[in-house]
From TrEMBL, chains A, B, C, D:
Signal peptide: none annotated. Residues 133-247 form the GFO/IDH/MocA-like oxidoreductase domain. InterPro entries: Gfo-Idh-MocA_inositol_DH, Gfo/Idh/MocA-like_OxRdtase_N, GFO_IDH_MocA-like_dom, MI/DCI_dehydrogenase, NAD(P)-bd_dom_sf. Gene3D superfamilies: Dihydrodipicolinate Reductase, domain 2 (3.30.360.10), NAD(P)-binding Rossmann-like Domain (3.40.50.720). Its EC number is 1.1.1.18. Residues 5-123 form the Gfo/Idh/MocA-like oxidoreductase N-terminal domain. This is Inositol 2-dehydrogenase. It catalyses: myo-inositol + NAD(+) = scyllo-inosose + NADH + H(+). One of its GO terms (molecular function) is nucleotide binding.
C-alpha cells in the first residue's frame, strides 16, 4: 500500500476549508500536509484542524518536499500563477474554477501543459462526479433518448450579496452550466445570447437577476439556462435533456415526502437544499477521491474536467458577459486544440 | 332525443344536496323533479335551487308521476324501506351506502331484486368511477403486474366528531375499502381482523383511531387498510396493488409542485385535498352521468356497484365490527348468490 | 328550468365532432340542434349520432329558428365570416382558434363586437378551464409565489404530418402558450424572438422542429417556450411559473406509479397521455358547460377567452412567424382596445 | 495525525469483500491489514486486492499484532465465538447481523460486554447511516409530525434462491425492519404477528412469500411490514411514519425522470435499484467511516447499533419465526438491560 498523497491546499476560505476537511476525514489515501492562505491566522486554524503545517507563501507550498499534489481554492486572480507553478514543478493540481481570469491566460495554461505531454491540471467542476449527472451522461450515451437536441437548465440560489452582479452571475454561476452542456453534449459552444427580463425586487439596481442565457453548440443544439441567484428559496439545480427519442430530467430532489397541515391547507412536501454544499456534498467527496486516486500515480481523473475544459469555460463566459452588454448573439472562437508533445493528435 | 330523466332525490343533507346540484348543472339528460327531506325547510331550499318541487313523504316521491328514477341519500336506517319501495314500483334507484343496516335486510333486498329479473338497484360506491381506480382496474386486468397478491390501502380524514366511533370507522369509512378490494380483486372477502394501536390524542376516550384492518379474500390474498380519521391533515386515499410481476400505487395527488421558503427551510410542496368532495368530485359526476344514461333505459350502470355489492359490503363491515371487539380473525359468510328469475346463472 | 340551449355546430372534423358529442352527452342544459359541415355526408353521420338535423349552408345554420348559439370548429379561413354572421344575428358563439387568419380581420371582429355593447364571442382556449391552470392562476393571484418574473413552457406532441411546418407550429401550437402567458401574467406580449436549433431527424426538410420561442411582456417579463411537435413520445404540456418569492410547476402527469421489470432493469413509471384530447378532456367539458351556462343568458363565460384575447393571439403569432424568418426580436403592436358602445371604459 | 486503523476482515463473501474494498478505497484512516475466510483461496484473492495479508485462523486474526479492530462478515453461526474473542481481547468489532443465532447466546454477548464497562460491539445495521433514515429520525425527533403512531414498511427483493424460506425471510430480511422500527420509534417491540397470504407462483412449495408482519411496541404502536423477496422487479425499501400531526414517507427513489415511448404507450419512468448494495452504498460507506473514526479511539459509533440492539433483533426475529408457525400474536420478552460495570445506570 503506497503512502497517502500529501496535498497542499492553497486558500482556505469556505471552499478550501471544506475540501481540506473532506480530504482529511472522508477520502482514502490522502493527507493534507500544507495549508496556505493569504490570511495566515485562518491558515493556522484550518491547519490545526486537519493536522497540517502552514506555509506563508503559496509557491513555497507548491514546491515543498512534503507536497505531492496541490488543491487551489484561492481567488481566481491568482490561479494563473499558481497553476503555472504546479506545471513548472510537474505535480498534479486540482484548481477550482476559473482556470484563469482571461482567455489568453487560460489558453497559455493549456499550451504550457500540452508541452508537458501529460495532463496534470484538473478543474473543480464537481457536477461531473454527481451521481445524477453521471447517470444522465450514461443515459445519453446509451442512446436511450436518441440524439440530444435541447438542454434546459435551471440554476437558482437562495441569495447573494449586492456585489454579485450580472457579470458574476455568468462567470461564477452559469460557468457550471457551460461545463455541464459541454460534458453532456460532448461538443463546444459556439455562440451565446442573453435575455434580460425585469429584475426581482431583491436585485440591486443595475443587476439583471434573473436572466435567460442561450448557448448554441457547434452542432446547432440549443441550451437554455435560467440563472436566478436571489430567489429567497434554496439551491435548485435542475437539468432536462431533450433528445430525438425521449427526454430526461434530474435534480428534482424528491427524496422523501412529508404530509402536514399548513396555514393554507394540508400539504405534502419535501426539503430543498439550502446551498451547493448540501446538494453536491457527495459529488465533492467523489471528485476528491477520484482525483487523489489519479494523483497518486501523477495524473488527473479521466472523468474530470481538464485544462481545455477550463479554458473553454473561460471563453464562453467571456462571450456571455459581452452578450449581456449587447443583447445579441456573441460568437465564441476557441481556436484549435493544442496537440500534446510526444503524443499524436487525440 | 328522449326527454330528461326525472329524478326524486330523497335526503338533501350534504351528500344529497351535492348530488341534486350535480344532476341539475353538470349531468346531461337529467332533471331533479322532486325533493324529499325529513327537514321540510331544507327540502324547500334545495328544491328552489334546482327547480324541483317538494314532496312531504318519501313514498309519495318514489311513486310520483313525474319521477322516473330515485336517488337515496337519506340516513341508512331508512334505506331498506325506500329501496324496497323503488323495487316495488320497478324504477331505477341509486342508493348511497349502506344498502341497509343489517345483513338480513340487505340480503332481502338482493333477493327481492333477483325476483324482478333485472338489476335496478345501484350502490353509491363512487370510487368505481374514479379515473385512477378505473385505470388501476384496467392495469390489473391487462396482466401487466401479474396476479395481485396484496392490496395496501390508506384512508385518512382530517377530522371527525366525537360521535364517530370505532364501529363507524368500519361502517362509514372502511366500507369503501371493502368495495375497492372486491372491485379490484374481483372476489369476495372471507375474513377480517382488526389491529388496534395506541390511539391518537385527538381520539375521544374508547375510540381506536387509527386502526389496521386486514381482509383475507377467498383466494387467500391479503388487504391491509390503515383507517385514521383524525389526522388533522386532509383527505388521503391511497391504494397500492402488489402483483406477482409488479405493483402500482395511486392516490398520490402530485398534480403540481410549488417551491417556496418555509420557516424550517425551503420546501417543494403540493396540496392535499380537504375532503372527499374535492378528491372525488369527478368520480361523483361520472357516476351520476353513467347512472342517468343507464336509468333512461330502465337499468343500472354496468360498471357500478349492484345490490349484491351492497349486501357484501354490509356483511364484511358487520364482521369488521365484531373483529374490533374480539381482536381475532372473524369469518364472513355471504351464502350463495340468488339467481335472477328468468335468467340463467350468471 | 329553461329549455336546453339549442346549438349549431359548424364543422365536425375531429374537434367539432368531439364537441358535438360532449354537448350531447356530458353537458347539462345543451342540445345540438343543427350540424353543418362542408362534407355533407360527415355532417349527416354526426347529426344522426347526436340527434340533430343537418343544414347544407353555414349561414342558414347560424340564422335558423332552432339555433340559440353557435360553436365554430370549421377551418380557420372561414372563421371571420362565420363569427361576423353570429355577431350580425347577435347570438353567442364559441369559436375555436384562430379568431381569424389575419390581424386586420381579427381586429375588425373585436370592433364589430364592441359596437354591440356586450360580449358574445368566446375563443376556444380550453386551458383556461383546465383545473391545473386554474389552480396556478389562483396561486399566482394569491401572492404565494410573489410577482411572476419568468414562465417556462414545454409543449410537445408525439407526431404531426409533414405539412405541419414551422409557421404552423407557431399558429396552431404555440398559440396556446400565447394565451396561457397572457392568462397567467395578465398582460400583453410586446415582442417575440425565435431560436432554431438543429432539427430532429423526424422533421421534414426545412422545418425547424423543435424551436425555442421567447416572449417579452409589456412589464418586461420573459416567457420561454419549447415547441417540439415530433417527439415520438406523447403529449406533454408543462408550465413553470417563477416568481419573486417562489415557483410552481404543473403538467407533471404523475397520477400513479407502476413498478415493473424492464429490459434494461426495473423501473417505476407512469403514463404520458397520447394527445390533447386525453390531457384536456376535462377542460373541454368544463369549457363547454361554462359556455352553455353563460350562453343560456345570452353572453360568454367570464372566465373564458374573449374576442380581444383571440385578436391578441393572432397578432402575437403573426410576429412569431416573422421572428422565425428574421431570427431577431419582432415587436407586437396591438393598438388600443376598443371601448364597448354604451359602456364606460373597463 | 494518527496512523490508519488496521482492520481484520473475517469472511470475504459478497458482503465482506465489499466492506474490505470500501475500507481500502473510500474510507479515511483505515487499512485492511488481515483477511480471513474459510475459503483460503478467496481470502488470498481479496487480500491481494486490498494489500492485506492472509490469516488461516480467525482467532489468530483477531489477536494479531497488526490488528486494531475487527469486521465480522462470516456466517452467522460463528458470530458468537468471533465476537466473544474480540471482547476477550477488548478491541472494537463491527459485526454483521445477526449478533448470534440464538436469544441466550446473544444475551450472553450483551452481558459479557457490560462487564467490560464500555461498548466495543457494533452491529451492521447500515440503515441507521442512510441519509433518508437519518432525516426521518430527525424529522420525528423534531416533533414536526407529532408522536408516531404507525410505521408502514415495504421490503422487496428481486429474487432469492429456493433455500430462502419463510424463516429466513424473518431472520435475514425483516430483521432490518426490526432495527428500523426500534431506531425510529425509540422503544422495544413487545409482540409479533404474521399474516400469510397466498404465495407468489415464484415461491417454492411451502414458502410464504409475501408475508405481512405486524409488530406491536411497548407503547402500543403498530408496525406493518410487507416482506416479499421474489418480486422479479428490484430492491424496494420504503418506510412511512404516521404521526399524530403528520406523516412522512421515504425510499421513493425518484432521483430523475425519463420520458420515452414504450410498447404500451409513452411513459415517464425512473430506475429501481437492483439490490441493496446499489440502494445502500452510501450508507455502508458512512457506516464504515463512522465506525473507523470511533474505533480509532477504541469505541463504537454513537449513532450505530450496539450489542443490545443486536440482541433485541435476535429476540424479535425468534418471536417472528414462532408467529409464522402459529398465526397468532407472539410476545417478546427481553428481560432487563444489563448495567455496564463501573458505570451508573444509563
Amino acid at each position: 500500500m503506497p503512502d497517502p498523497l500529501r496535498i497542499a491546499v492553497l486558500g482556505v476560505g469556505m471552499m478550501g476549508r471544506f475540501h481540506a476537511e473532506t480530504l482529511s476525514s472522508r477520502v482514502h489515501g490522502a493527507r493534507v500536509s500544507v495549508i496556505y492562505d493569504f490570511d495566515h491566522e485562518r491558515a493556522a486554524e484550518v491547519a490545526a484542524e486537519v493536522g497540517a503545517r502552514v506555509e506563508a507563501d503559496p509557491f513555497a507550498a507548491i514546491n515543498a518536499d512534503d507536497v505531492d499534489a496541490v488543491l487551489i481554492a484561492s481567488p481566481g486572480s491568482v490561479h494563473e500563477e499558481q497553476v503555472l507553478a504546479c506545471l513548472d514543478r510537474g505535480i498534479p493540481v486540482l484548481c477550482e474554477k476559473p482556470l484563469t481570469t482571461g482567455i489568453r491566460t487560460a489558453r497559455a495554461v493549456v499550451e504550457t501543459e500540452a508541452k508537458l505531454g501529460k495532463k496534470i491540471v484538473q478543474l473543480g467542476f464537481m457536477r461531473r462526479f454527481d451521481p445524477e449527472y453521471v447517470a444522465a451522461k450514461q443515459l445519453i450515451d446509451s442512446g436511450a433518448i436518441g440524439r440530444p437536441l435541447l438542454l434546459h437548465c435551471v440554476h437558482r440560489n437562495k441569495n447573494n450579496g449586492d456585489h454579485f452582479n450580472s457579470e458574476m452571475m455568468i462567470r461564477d454561476s452559469v460557468v457550471h452550466e457551460v461545463d455541464v452542456a459541454r460534458f453532456l453534449l460532448g461538443e463546444e459552444i459556439r455562440a451565446v445570447q442573453v435575455h434580460r427580463p425585469a429584475a426581482t425586487a431583491a436585485a440591486p439596481a443595475g443587476v439583471s437577476d434573473p436572466m435567460i442565457v442561450i448557448f448554441e453548440t457547434e452542432a446547432g443544439r440549443l441550451v437554455t439556462v435560467e440563472i436566478f441567484v436571489r430567489t429567497g428559496i434554496g439551491y435548485e439545480v435542475r437539468t432536462e435533456v431533450v433528445g430525438e427519442n425521449g427526454s430526461t430530467v434530474f435534480g428534482l430532489d424528491h427524496h422523501g415526502i412529508t404530509r402536514t397541515a399548513g396555514p393554507g391547507g394540508a400539504i405534502w412536501s419535501g426539503l430543498i437544499p439550502e446551498g451547493f454544499i448540501e446538494r453536491f456534498a457527495d459529488a465533492y467527496t467523489i471528485e476528491l477521491q477520484r482525483w487523489v486516486d489519479a494523483a497518486r500515480t501523477g495524473g488527473i481523473s479521466p472523468d474530470g474536467a481538464d485544462a481545455w475544459d477550463g479554458y473553454a469555460a473561460v471563453a464562453v463566459c467571456e462571450a456571455g458577459v459581452e452578450a449581456i452588454r449587447t443583447g445579441d448573439r456573441v460568437e465564441v472562437d476557441l481556436g484549435s486544440r493544442p496537440v500534446p508533445v510526444d503524443r499524436p493528435t487525440e
